[in-house]
Amino acid sequence: MKRYSLLLGATALALAPAAAMAERGSSGHLNIIYWQAPSTLNPYLSGGTKEVESSSLILESMARFDETGAMVPWLAESIPTVENGGVSADLTSITWTIADGITWSDGSALTASDFVFTWQYCTHPEGGCAQAANYDGVTAVEAVDDKTVRITFNAPTPFPYTAFVGSESPVIQAAQFAECLGARAPECTDANFGPIGTGPFKVDEFRPNDVIELSANPNFRFPDRPYFGTVTFKGGGDATSAARSVCETGEFDYAWNLQMDPTILAGMAAQGRCAIEVAFGTSVERIHLNQTNPDPALGDARSTVEGGPHPFLTNPIIGQAMSMAIDRALIVEIGYGAGGKPTCNVLPAPDLYASTANDGCLVQDIPGAIALLDGAGIVDTNGDGIREYNGVPLRVLYQTSTNAVRQDTQALIKQWWAEIGIDTELRNIDASVFFGGDPASPDTFQKFYADIEMYTNNFAGVDPQAYMASWLCGDMPRPQSQWQGSNIQRFCDPAYDALVAEMARTADLNERGRLAREMNDMLVRYSIIPLVHRGGVSARAATLEGHRMSDWDSELWNIMDWRRTQ
Amino acid sequence: MTDTADRTAKAAPSLEAYRPPRNQWWDVWDQFKTHKGALFGLGFFVFTLLFVFIGPLIWTIEPQYIDIRARNAGPSLAHPMGTDQLGRDTMARMMAGGQTSIAVGLTAMALALVLGTLVGVLAGYFKRLDGLLMRTTDLFLAMPLLPLLLVTIMLFRDPLRANFGPEGGIFILIVVMIGVTSWMQTARVVRAEVLALKEREFVLAARSIGTPSHRMITRHLLPNVMSPIMVSATLGIANAIITESALSFLGLGFPSDFPTWGRLLFDATDWLMQNPERVIWPGMAISLTVLSVNYIGDGLRDALDPRIRGR
Amino acid sequence: MLTYTIRRLILAIPTLLFISFVIFLIVKLSPSDPTAGLPLTIPPEVREQIRESLGVNDPVVVQYFKWLKLMVWDEPLHFIEGATGWQVAPDGPRIISYQTRSPVMDLIVQRMPQTLWVVGTSYIVGILIALPLGIISAYKQYSVFDQVGTFISMVGFSVPTFFTGVLFIVIFAVTLGWFPSVYDTTHEVTDWDSFVVQLKQIIMPVMVLGLYNASQISRYLRASMLDNLNQDYVRTARAKGLGEKTVVLVHVLKNSMIPVVTVIALNVPAVFGGAIITEQVFKVNGIGQLLIIAIQSGDVPVVQTVSFIFAVLIVLFSLIADILYGVLDPRIRYD
Questions:
Q1: ipTM > 0.95?
Q2: pTM of the predicted model as reported, rounded to 2 decimal places
């Protein structure tokens, strides 16, 4: 308790008087609505946000991220660093110590062997573990003693806080999952639907894709928490109806991911029953300009390097003009409200990595864009209102996933581009197809059978190294790789690849920041047009307090502190 | 029950022999005119057609033009039906949307009706075809619609887009998809009626004098299954307009900035509290169009039925 | 009639096999993917491993026969074991959902109650409204009752449930506060009070769906009644001195029921299929929601199993309709 309060610092102290009076279960019942319902409570079997967040009420990890992105020791005694000897000097191993007095909800003690088991469970070759990326590069997890876990990496790892940190790689109980390794994972329905955890709540009933009933964990390590005795976690419907059930009918206390028109949401919040909470992580809504030619006439060579470069989008002048024509502040105002900030960076956070070199794009400049194109000789030669570049008219097919806000953004951008002489055809594709990655479908975002596409991407945790490595020349989706690959816009620059390699060797934080910013600047000139730095938007009932929203971790990361105002 | 068509053909000349020969369709029109509901329906339908097809010539605001300062405005002189969340003029969008919705509604309904009637009549009349056709109907009924649409889109969108352009290609795709997935109810209803009809005396009589099958169907069976077909037609238009909106919502339909009535209604639903007029326009347009088609259907059925026309 | 029924039942087996294979092909061909819902932070290699562990990459025919064997042999045995307690179920694998990694049949069983409550009740309500509406509308054609009835049923059919549902919520849940806007699937009816709670939470979705169903059925009934009211046999019946009630409610109604029976029989399987949009609007989370989520997340086993059960019901009810035609009009024969 003492350790925890100290770490939470001022916020917790400010709340201390109320907290001191409250006891476990004193706030009664909590109703949470997630309009996408969790399909399992085992985050290793389904890595969806809904599964990860719902299971974070039950399962915990060594450390969690607070609302500033700072690590908070959770099951661990403290955060291991090179300075305190927790991380080896050569950066190849990290040693965690479990805090005293932590038990599972069935009363048995949490030991280091549970962590070893969790690692084996997720890295089993037949298991299809959704969180395997968190254990990338880990060669061994050992139980040094009952309380100490050592993780060894295959190479120096400047940022070793991936395994057992955050809500995505929590520890599961070895005793419960012992028979569920690998291909047998699906046979353990009872365990997957009712994992035993160390967290503040335990599962009473789970109905997949529908509802979870939870109650306070009687063996939780803080005797006075959680303040809520029971929780109903309901799923289904859509964002608007979820917001309505918190802000208008008051049936629910907390609604997640309210991606809806901000005017409607603000209108609901104005009635005073709820408050809108926003937290920013690393999500950026961006436009990718296809650097290869998506012409259907090319057949199989479409959108590949073999098909040749794009007839005009590889020209930085055109990309720059397209970026200048966009009023990012207006897109935010219309589509995102408090849940977005205009940005010119594909890597907008943490602060260390955020470049300021491109901030000129924050102001829309249509005359400037027209002058730029005119100056470069890219003009309308045949009088149809559309400019030509080397005889090719600037007509683009602009695709994205189906979502009301994205369609509004598309309509706005189409009009701005029309003003600078670029003609746009819009297409929206069902999200399950667009993000599905089926190599047989022409409509996946990896295949990119369009000139331009828009979606949001981000990276988990606070370290951008793996994320920036997405744009290596060799990572382009192509037929040989079943269209897998993260370099969606087919960007290729040997200088960029060199920077990626340099970052992997560099441990100094400031130097890493400089490298990341340099890479960001290369990308946004002009194969990616960043639009909006997006935050998570949630609504909480006015009577709910103690909520600290983090986009770096599960939004429910500190649910043990939530309580009803007196 | 008598052979209605034949009786008209024979009776009309004998009674009106002194009049110049008159097209049978004038009689139909005369009877139709006496049906007040049908006239009203026809009037409203013509008005709607004028509104959506001639309207844009007078009201020249582009339906896709964004005037961001005028967003979420209520009805005013500049925007008689208000604007949407991007400041696009609702009246212009209602006109443009009506063109698509009415075209999709009528063509898809016609396709479903033709398919359904054909299958229904053939299955009901020819015993040998019954099993095969009805099991095909079962197959279509059991098919999960959404995956079917996804597959169709995946296979046919690009060839159609290449041949007919983005909007023409999608129009064909949507009309065919709606038509092909909504004929089953009509087919089953028509078949059931035909099964009952073909045991009636007048059919047996016609058959006993050696009437060939195609004439049996066109002259004796079809006129007697008009009522359920008319109901199917009315319901079919509503169904096609709504289904189209569901398709474009799923990203399987027209481009998102291309308005249709169903889509306008869908988009406006979230604004029910703030801008209630936004749901009223498309909601009314769809309902009243369907209602007017229903009345036209009623009048047409009465007018085509010689037993009523005689009175 | 008996031989006809038996022949149709035997014929149903190859029909269903064929239908299930076509459905399987379509579902497999459709471009949804089980990893589509995962955050983009999960790398492609991991996605591929997930697909591999689900068996998505096996040849289609192999997958189909695996599913078929489980569907027609193992799952019924599990059902028998669950219903009777006999130890007959084999130990092997079951049909497993990709999303939840749990048996598909358990999911279906879990969702049946709310679907039957909401969609089933709405169907009964729809029929109960449609019968008098259709009969009176036809009998008093062009009366005020008929005009109002026509207007309401046309509006009821042409205004989609995604709108009426939200409208009802805004009026009755938000403004008046009479009914809950979110359906509680864990609620159990044990006594009068809990029954009232249940009634309150089903009333809005039931009315939305009931209105839609009633519109459709009443239109067919009205048209068919109108056809029959002009027939010679009605005049004969009246001439015989039968009461007006008997004439209309027995003779005319019986002869007008064929299209109505067709439409009802066609839609009874849809009760099992749930109502996708209405379930979504009111968060009923029944079979309809199970199906739509499964489609969106490329969950082939769930889509396939639900569609198959749906197909069985369709084949069964089209047979029932055919038998009913014979009862309503004894002249119809199939032999």
A1: no
A2: 0.85
